Amino acid sequence: MATTAARADYRDSGLEFPPGFTFGSATAAYQVEGAANEDGRGPSIWDTFSRTPGKVWNGDTGDVACDHYHRWESDLDLMGELGLGAYRFSIAWPRILPSGRGEVNRRGVDFYSRLVDGLLERGIRPVATLYHWDLPQALEDEGGWTARSTADAFEDYARIMGEALGDRVHTWTTLNEPWCSAYLGYGQGGHAPGRHEPASALAAVHHLNLAHGRAVQALRATSTGSPEYSITLNFHVLRPGGEGAAEAMRRADALANRAFTHPLLRREYPADLLDDTKSVTDWSFVRDGDLATINQPIDVLGVNYYSTATVRAWDGVSPRQMNDGHKGDAGGTAWPGSDQVLEFIQQPGPYTAMGWNIAPEGLEELLVSLSEQFPGQPLMVTENGAAFDDVVSADGSVPDPERLDYLRRHLTAAHRALQRGVDLRGYFVWSLLDNFEWGYGYAKRFGIVRVDFDTLERTVKDSGRWFAELAKTRRIPT
User: Fold this and answer.
1) What Gene Ontology terms describe what this protein does at the molecular function level (predicted)?
2) pLDDT band for position 320 (50/70/90)?
């Protein structure tokens, strides 16, 4: 029996997950593959963005990353040694269609076909994400996600991948964190393509939602196996931060959470979202029939969670910054599409190396809330993890007690959600490998496996060995 103190800090012991619960890990193509200019791959918006001076720490790019493109077989062997039940990877759209549409690059398709076969040979279920932020640059040149034609192109891309891999993929995920693609890419500018256009960010929200619905239809029409269908969202778990907090939380929830969940799962955009944003856009980009297309039945809703965010109305004095989607930055934020400026308050620690607060109770709260809002909708934690400044020991091992403790506490939170009746199907740790962490370049390490970015050597960290024991026994190790 866990003590009161243990329950309060989410360090319960002896917890066992049910049979069939999936333990996996996740990566993204641009963050791990490298081979940016090989085998017919075209440029993506992240190739362009990372090569733009001042956009990424130290001028880092994903040109080599973890070199997974050449090391995929040994990486799959490593996954097998860790006992992973599933691997969530993303397919690089520009590796399949270098210009975003048109002629298919067979070498790109063949790479992912080999990857899927290799996973199945090792008893690991392939979970394939069609879009993890690497839009072909040619499509961005035509307007990117602000243009409806990008959703058209995405539907064609989904059809191609369904025909190629739909006999073997276990789960199709259409989009990863469209919040980031829309708001950080087109509103705040901290992610590729780096635009600062609030109205464009809202158009991108809709076209990403539409692309999801179109892709699910295309995948269902072409997949000859019996895959499951999904989308992964990053949710803002909000806390009040003082005067004006209730209204700030409502507005943030509408823009960050309900702008996606409601069209996806309820066939509507929330009325308060439309009212909040009427000074920015009239939403004329939403056409008759779009919401029906978006509202496709999905087998599982992917949930990404890292930390909470505390908000209030901006005081008019603090520096204005943008929340990055996983934590709250101090400073006023004119969220794209909102006529009220929100302030994200620095939260109590402890923090990860990203400066994100560690709050396992937020994961339990989120899972329970989603279960209550959308009864009958199965959930999957598709990303959860932490960056810390790992140090290699003299014997070559990588002890990472802070990450291990983070995972223990958040898996406890997931287990508590299960006990409260949440239909939670699994948990994917972010990430398998240290990798290119977007605007932070190679400065932040999330992996349960260390990558030496000079030699590209892999070393399983203590947290990786701990997670392997969990995957083997389904019991949270002591």
Assistant:
1) beta-glucosidase activity
2) very low
